[in-house]
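User: For my dataset I need records formatted as: sequence, then structure tokens, nothing else. Please produce one.
Assistant:
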Amino acid sequence: MPPPPNRTSPRSPAHLPFLLAALAFLAALIVTYMVAGNAQRTAAAELAGNFNFRARDVAANIDRRMDVYEEVLLATRGFLRGSVDVGRAEFADYYAVLHLNDRFPGIEALGIAALIPPGRMDAHVAAMRAEGFRDYTIKPPGPRPVITSVTRIEPFSGRNLRAFGYDMFSEPVRRAAMEAARDTGRAAATGKVVLVQEGGRDEQSGFLMYVPVYGIGTARTGPTPDTVAARRAAIVGWVYAPFRMNDLMRGLGGEHAGDLQIEIYDGMAPTAAALLYRSPGASPPGHRPMLRYQTTVDSAGRPWTVVVHSGPGFEASLEHRATLAIALTGIGLGLLLALVVWLLASERRRALQLAQGMTVELRASRDRIDAERERVRLILQTAYDAFIAIAPDGRITDWNLQASQMFGWREEEAIGRNVLELLIPAPQRDEWRDCLERFARDGACPRLTGPTEAAALTREGHEIPVEIAITPLATRQGYGVTAFVRDIRPRKEAAEREQQRQQRLEEARALLLRSQKLEAVGKLTGGVAHDFNNILHIISANVQLMLRSEDNGRKRLLNILDAVERGKKLAAQLLAFARRQPLHPSVVNLAQLIERMDTLLHRAAGDGVAIHMAIPPDLWNVLVDPNQLENVLLNLVINARDAMTGAGGITIALANMTITAADQLAYPGIRPGEFVTIAVSDTGAGMPADVMERAFEPFFTTKPEGKGTGLGLSMAHGFVKQSGGHIRLASRPGEGTTVTIYLPRALQDTPDPAFLPVPH
């Protein structure tokens, strides 16, 4: 019987290399799957972190923008100072100064809703029509318990004209917000409404924000009345602003706004009826967002629900390349490892050398991937501010795009440079060097506790204010620094502009109080002067009758008559201050009038005082009483002579001047127009500020008793105001005094014949 055939067992040594290679390849696939999955989860976590950061930033930007708009309305209430009866031109000028269209997108307009007292609607409509609005009426018509009207709105053009005269209190949603603002004294926003201005194809959802205005005559202890009842009694109107949601949200999401889908709902629940805004270019049908974020923000006391979804563009940024690279690398390494195992089974020495080389290469590749991932993560977290990383020895190791834009140095120029030499001003380098050395050693420095304001240098050598937030980064050589730097120049400039505005308001308020004071005193002196003049007429008539008789009392009667004449002169001066003296205005050439008074002025100034004239050849004519103007000029020259104790120089300068509406800040209280100015300057002792404030008051004088009546400047003030002009006083102790008179220009080219110069 023949022997059985010799069969090879599956576990024979001939198949062992292939079995080991298959097991090695399987193990490599398992490891590759785990590493790739971990990389994919890490990338997804980074994407979710970036999404949450940007979503929170969007919500914070919405909240900050609404806070800014609330501050705009509060500032407007401060501008009104307790009254809604502000002139249209004045309100338009205030609106123009704010530059709302440029700085505050989304505000459709800025307006005033006045509360119409019961029974005053007809008078209110008549007053508004008297201002030039002939078609003005309150909309909608009909009787109501409470009636309001939009009396001022800027810009006063386009679709804003639809809101002019509209009674917002007649509409329930608007009325609820107006009542909330009235009762709390704070800003209040409405729910979702369609603005009165809307119409046409571009209709948007909107809302309004109100700030109450309480009357200045109400008794209260604070900026608003203390109780709800007092606030309701004191309310005179509201300052308000309408908003269109699409315009409000324009540009709020930043340069990558299209990556996120933003929805804003009125109230606490995201329902279809409460939808205020949805990002344009919504996700395609069937797309389910990978990420979602929901929060609530406060809009002037009204909650908004903000829902943010990730868009297809944002989700496309999920990094799959690293996972694919790891998978391909793992498969390739698995094949190589299988080959190594197969070779190991046949040629151990050569397989061992090859495996060692592959292991070293794999470790180096993984280290590079981890380092690059950490670098990208840090840059993504600091995308909105300048980010600078500093090694313990002070060298810059990281520098992002915002840092390049802020300081002017490109990344390749900044990296490797010493941060003290590149960014710190020279006088502060020693202090910062000590702080950074301590930080590198201990990871902390008292100067760098929390956000810190400091000065930094740009490439051009300019110092700019910045805010720095420091975080330590541990290394083998010590603690490095990761710094987030923010440019705070816009915040500083805004604070400075606000301070200047407050200063101008204070100056205007002081000027108004001074003018009211002079006006009140003028009315008083006018009444006194008229009564005094009547008495003098009676005395004068009786004295003249007695003079006709021949007796021994004639000399005494002459003295009485002289006193009467002096009393008449005093009454004339009081009338001039009160602006009630009879004037005989004529068209006068001031150069000719000054030339005619030359001898008189030199005689009044005295031999020790030199008078200099500055008269241009093309001087305009003015409409003024020449005799009264001569008296004013003579008084000003005498005052200048007395201020210089009889020795010095007087300059009389005439000039043409045109004041436009843009010059109102430089010339407060002077209406725009064409004027001829007369400036009388001396080189005397000057006046301190307290004396200047009272210089135009009647009977106020710094001269010794018997040297003056104190009516010279007050008479000049009254005469100039009665002539339609203005008078200004400028003086400093030790530098002399200048009195400037602004007389309105006369359109007649030639002066009246009665006041032409007399030919020699």
